[in-house]
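User: tokens in, sequence out, please.
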């Protein structure tokens, strides 16, 4: 008697279209992701094109023209740039701006780094971080007006305190010597909290194991700061410096509401001079040429900073 085999029939390997079908199914991806991404990107791209790229290209074109809003732009070639090179007020404004940037960045970076280290090493309070950030939530115009009233030579509370200490009143914003340092410190007060929080975020990325190992070896806090914190914080610090330098070169509103470029052009920073040339004297071609020059200067400084500080490299290997 023949007994039927209970073993299942062997499966033959798939061939042709039957073998390709599962592979196609495995590689299939949901459709419509590209269109959805384009929808989300579109508002930002539209803003970039309308408010950044087009004004930049338009400004570069106007820098080669004579334009005053009332008549069509007249192409003049490099005349605006020749005028700029021979303009002593332009060079004076550039020097005033550099003086402001050096004071503002120097004080702000040191103060922000100290605050960030204290926030990391001494406290983890979210309330304290919020307090540190509070001045940054105030607009530059409001901050400038508040400090203008506080530092008023006759009625300001700052000079009232100085006078009460038996010291002569100081014309902080009305004296050529004091004006730029005062404006620089006003903006340090407003921006230092934000800069400190950026550096604090960089400090959070440094492993605590390194500090614990250094303590076991007997390293002091000061030694750990220079041998661990600063080298590992370098990429974040470099990016923060690039951002703050670019922002400092564009200072305008604080000057506009406190000194209006005075006294005797002592605070006539480059952005304020560009604004005065364009909207005060309607020399839009010349103002555009100075704006292009500022763009070139900032681009060169940014590239130099990026390379010198090795911002794209990290020691956290």
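Assistant: Sequence out:
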């Amino acid at each position: 008697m023949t007994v039927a085999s209970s073993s299942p029939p062997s499966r033959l390997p798939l061939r042709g279209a039957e073998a390709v079908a599962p592979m196609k199914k495995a590689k299939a991806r949901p459709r419509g992701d590209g269109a959805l991404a384009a929808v989300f990107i579109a508002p930002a791209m539209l803003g970039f094109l309308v408010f950044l790229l087009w004004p930049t290209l338009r400004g570069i074109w106007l820098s080669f023209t004579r334009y005053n809003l009332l008549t069509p732009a007249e192409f003049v070639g490099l005349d605006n740039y020749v005028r700029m090179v021979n303009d002593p007020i332009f060079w004076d404004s550039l020097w005033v701006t550099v003086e402001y940037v050096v004071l503002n960045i120097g004080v702000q970076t040191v103060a922000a780094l100290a605050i960030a280290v204290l926030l990391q090493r001494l406290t983890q309070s979210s309330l304290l971080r919020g307090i540190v950030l509070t001045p940054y939530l105030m607009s530059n115009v409001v901050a400038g007006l508040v400090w203008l009233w506080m530092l008023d030579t006759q009625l300001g509370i700052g000079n009232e305190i100085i006078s009460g200490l038996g010291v002569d009143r100081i014309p902080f914003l009305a004296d050529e010597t004091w004006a730029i340092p005062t404006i620089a410190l006003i903006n340090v007060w407003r921006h230092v909290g934000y800069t400190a929080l950026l550096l604090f975020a960089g400090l959070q990325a440094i492993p605590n194991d390194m500090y614990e190992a250094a303590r076991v070896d007997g390293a002091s806090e000061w030694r750990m700061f220079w041998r661990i914190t600063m080298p590992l914080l370098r990429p974040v610090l470099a990016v923060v410096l690039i951002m703050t330098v670019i922002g400092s070169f564009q200072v305008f509103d604080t000057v506009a509401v406190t000194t209006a470029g005075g006294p005797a052009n002592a605070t006539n920073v480059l952005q304020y001079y560009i604004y005065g040339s364009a909207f005060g004297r309607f020399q839009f071609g010349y103002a555009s040429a100075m704006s292009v020059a500022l763009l070139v200067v900032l681009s060169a400084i940014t590239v130099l900073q990026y390379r010198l500080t090795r911002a794209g490299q990290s020691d956290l290997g």
